Amino acid sequence: MNKKVLVLPGDGIGKEVCDAALPALEALDLPIELIYGEIGWECWMRDGDPVPAATWQRIEQVDAILLGAITSKPKKQAEAELPPALQGQNHRYVSPVIQLRQRLGLFANVRPSFYLTGNGKPYRMSVIRENTEGLYAGYDYRGIPEAIRPLVKHPNLERYGADEASCTLRLQTRFGLERLFGFAFEHAVQHGFDRVTFADKPNVMRESGDFAQEIFEAVAARYPGIRADIQNVDAVALWLVTRPEQFGVIVAENMFGDILSDLAGGVMGGLGLAPSANYGEGVAYFEPVHGSAPGMVGKDKANPAAMFLSIAMLLEHLGFAREAARLQDAVRNAIRSGAHLTYDLGGSAGTRRFADEVLALLHGQ
Amino acid sequence: MNKKVLVLPGDGIGKEVCDAALPALEALDLPIELIYGEIGWECWMRDGDPVPAATWQRIEQVDAILLGAITSKPKKQAEAELPPALQGQNHRYVSPVIQLRQRLGLFANVRPSFYLTGNGKPYRMSVIRENTEGLYAGYDYRGIPEAIRPLVKHPNLERYGADEASCTLRLQTRFGLERLFGFAFEHAVQHGFDRVTFADKPNVMRESGDFAQEIFEAVAARYPGIRADIQNVDAVALWLVTRPEQFGVIVAENMFGDILSDLAGGVMGGLGLAPSANYGEGVAYFEPVHGSAPGMVGKDKANPAAMFLSIAMLLEHLGFAREAARLQDAVRNAIRSGAHLTYDLGGSAGTRRFADEVLALLHGQ
Ligand SMILES: CC(C)[C@H](C(=O)O)[C@@H](O)C(=O)O
Ligand SMILES: CC(C)[C@H](C(=O)O)[C@@H](O)C(=O)O
């Protein structure tokens, strides 16, 4: 039976990289049916909701989602930009990717980073980022909420008082951490990594650090063949730059994982290359780590490599591991050959030219 | 009149890099008197306090502090390692650097990163990290405190309840942000940077992002000659790897700044090179960003460059700008010549051999 994939090109260069990379599915001759849907900024400006009801309905009917890119703006700005007709109707802007992750229970954001460009030493690793709690749990306040005031006696509050402050709760739960760590070790087993590093900050956030450590160690004990360690997140950031080859899986709280995975994308050669996958309870979605890059739109400048590699992750998830590997090889070879690189990699080829190179390599395999 | 500097070599390689680099003060023939004091792990194991009262007293008498390195362990581990005679006396371990920053009101942690090794493009920037609040404010809990349970209704809490969770408050105050941003723009003016970038996450932490943005913009308005922008912290992490030359000053909350500054140290060529300064109300302290590296002790392996560069920052602070520049030049030339690099930079020279090279260059200037 055909697998169904919902394609949500989204904003800006999202559409361009979808158009350029999706022909890979044909080249690989796969029994996949594509369905299209809407998401993002245009939906927000038209309906006051960046994820339309029709898109949620289609999500129910598919085996995986492929997302292009999303324009994400700070809430105040997004709400101020709503057209006059939609103002005052209490439309609240919530980033569509966060909506997807939360509503679909996609708790594990996998962001692989590996040697592609020919600079530096070969390495291969994955950042696995918690996707539903931590600093992203949604408890962010201007002013210290009444309930919290008795707890907070910080000298910096003396001058202006508790209204002239902000406060964010970083929430971590046993439920969230157990499933995250379980996922990370399973990912390591399945992808042949021999080390899982939890990037945290236990020497400063001691209570939450102790709590997470206990859970991490309990899960690690079930995987005696895998080296498990806890490192300070700042040190991990540094080592990712200087010695990425030492890592296998790096697992982290939502905000730490957001930073480390972008960083790992930089080490890989930039966001033009970095793919990602979001797994969990509901249907998984796959997307390049890059944004919608409004300044690049229509210039045939975007690098479709991250989208090709996100499609490869999607194929692996749908059970087409061999085709996933073929696609990854084609991208790697197109980059190594260096003949038609996009401008982010120092070349002058357009989006389509590079994509054609990948497709030609696929056909020639 | 002589300036007084308190030298706190601290733990591990801290002593080694102090010994190797402090002769620079003699070579520069400066009217500086050195006083020595104790800090760190040995003090903790002896007295149950990593910053002895005698050290606090000496701090009162000096113009600046030079710190070597500190062994910082998670609280539980540190307290478990206390000798039996000190157990049960309610000794609470608090990292000595955090004690210094908080008690001396050293709110601005300056971590410069610049082109030294000859790899990549020339660049020069400073990360300025808030040092007294944010996620480091000290509100970290195992379990959700009773007072704030009514606020927290997260689905991840359903399975195991509010005791099987942890919670950390990220506190930011108008007082803290105003002085931080003011410091960052002044630093830009004094060091010839034309851009100040606030690395935050306003598209996710919207209320605190709005709050900080207002304060940042109000301060920026006083510096019309400097380009001021707010960027997502994840994007800043990526760009630091791929295009550090675009930045001038990056200013950030405590935890974000901790990560970004270690990362910037990696971009510089590793922690063997990265210096730092902590400024604020009380006496400023200067230290290499690296830790005490217990595994390296006694092997003549530590790179003293970060300590030389920290001394250069200290000299600038004490009003010896010309000598600071001379010392920086000597370090840069010793690294560029490549003849006696330490092993972190791919060489085989010992701590002292590299230091001697720097001292010889100083004498020869
Ligand atoms: C757009 C934004 C909300 C998102 C995030 O922070 O998770 C993005 O940076 C990402 O990493 O997918
Ligand atoms: C030792 C630790 C508490 C400290 C910090 O996190 O501030 C260190 O990482 C630093 O950056 O100076």
From TrEMBL, chains A, B:
Alphabetical UniProt keywords: Oxidoreductase
Annotated Isopropylmalate dehydrogenase-like domain residues: 4-358
Protein family membership: Belongs to the isocitrate and isopropylmalate dehydrogenases family.
Name of the protein in its database record: Isocitrate/isopropylmalate family dehydrogenase
Protein species of origin: Lysobacter yangpyeongensis
